[in-house]
Predict the 3D structure of the following.
Amino acid sequence: MLLLGIETSCDDTAAAVVEDGLRVRASVATSQDAFHAKYGGIVPEIAGRQHVQLISATVEHALETAGATLAEIDGVAVTYGPGLVGSLVVGVAAAKAIAYAAGKPLYAVNHLHGHLYAAFLEQDPAPELPFLGLIVSGGHTQLVDVRAHGDLRIIGRTLDDAAGEAFDKTARVLGLGFPGGPAMDRLAQQGDPTAIDFPRSMLGSDSLDFSFSGLKTSARYFLESPQGKRAKTADVAASFQAAVVDVLVAKTVQAQRRLGYSTVVVAGGVAANSRLRAQMSAWAERSGARLLIPPLRFCTDNAAMVAAAAYHEALGTSDPLTLGADPNLPF
Ligand code: KG4
Ligand code: ZN
């Protein structure tokens, strides 16, 4: 089964062609970072307009790279929420038009489910269910009990900022530009993660919830203090990253022990973080758990994960005339 995936929930215009929810024949993502960087964050109006500019060429490029024609595609899978409304509507409109014109079934995918199904791409053998998922992105941080395809339950979530948001906001205070997560990761590699003892919120508690706003505030106050003004930026980045990663790893391990599942998936943009990957891998090695972290290009927003989710969740079809975007789509 060959699915065309389309993803425009935030600021990446993406299209992909995926076979049987596994083999990625093409995955194209056109980053808009250059258009948002000077504002220090994503400007929704610019994102929507850029999607309009880029969507047709991105879909064509994906089909061309896959060596597939629309006639050979078995269906169109599109992210319809959650996300920025002005961004979502562009992908949804494109998918509806393509599905209607080509007479193909249309599948409406939840972006967050997509992030988890990124772990199925190019994986042999496929992840076994049930599994524990950690979704860490710019907008979300949540632990998910994936009992069966289509039966996903949140068992822990952030009470305030998402992990990626904490990275981005602190990176901004450090003058690292946008998006801050990757820049922070690079800089942290030259710093000492034990230099500053930033707080690890919620670590002592039984709850599987996260909180990152205290850490973010603590980093800001530190940087305004005389000690902070003397500190090396790389040390601040490394220490901040260590605090975020410590909490993410500890809560994931706690959840895995509670559920007793042997497979753990870590997905979303922050799963690209080198320290998180290294620490989760070290834990998996020690514990014998099967850890799946998608390759970098499938961690950040992409359309291959959308096609994978539609395939594995065996979604019913949507009406190409009436499907709407849902910016607040619940998990
Ligand atoms: O999943 P994603 O591409 O978009 C959302 O759905 O939010 O995630 C983007 C987030 C941003 O906050 C970005 O700073 C963060 O992922 N990110 C990273 C790294 N790469 C991307 N955070 C930490 N370390 C990285 N290497
Ligand atoms: Zn995302």
The first strand starts at residue 2 and ends at 7. Strands lie at 2-7, 12-19, 23-31, 75-81, 106-110, 131-136, 141-148, 151-157, 263-267, 290-292.
